[in-house]
Write a structure and sequence with these properties.
By secondary structure, the protein is an all-alpha fold. It has two helices and no strands.
Length: about 100
């Protein structure tokens, strides 16, 4: 089968716009790809540096019965409970 009446001048005129649009789209895609590759290959100064060492915070509530101080020998020290806190509980109201 042969195509019906082909007019090459008319077809060039009709295809000019879409071909230019596709060429622009491919150009933009190639530019963005090049930009992305250059950014990932070169890196930024923040990512090239080693991360800072983590500082472990050892301060906090000591274990029960252990009190640390400047003259701590490593042996556990017993903290005496405050006698004022060991009062008899308040009797329930309504008796």
């Amino acid at each position: 089968m042969t195509p019906p009446d082909t007019n090459l001048k008319k077809q060039k005129k009709r295809h000019k716009g879409p071909l230019i649009g596709m060429a622009l789209g491919v150009t933009v895609a190639v530019l963005l790809l090049g930009w992305f590759i250059s950014r990932t290959m070169m890196g930024t100064p923040e990512t090239d540096q080693a991360p800072p060492e983590q500082v472990i915070d050892s301060t906090g509530i000591p274990a029960e019965g252990a009190v640390s101080g400047p003259d701590d020998t490593g042996a556990p020290q017993v903290e005496e409970p405050d006698p004022a806190l060991e009062e008899d509980p308040v009797p329930p109201a309504g008796d």
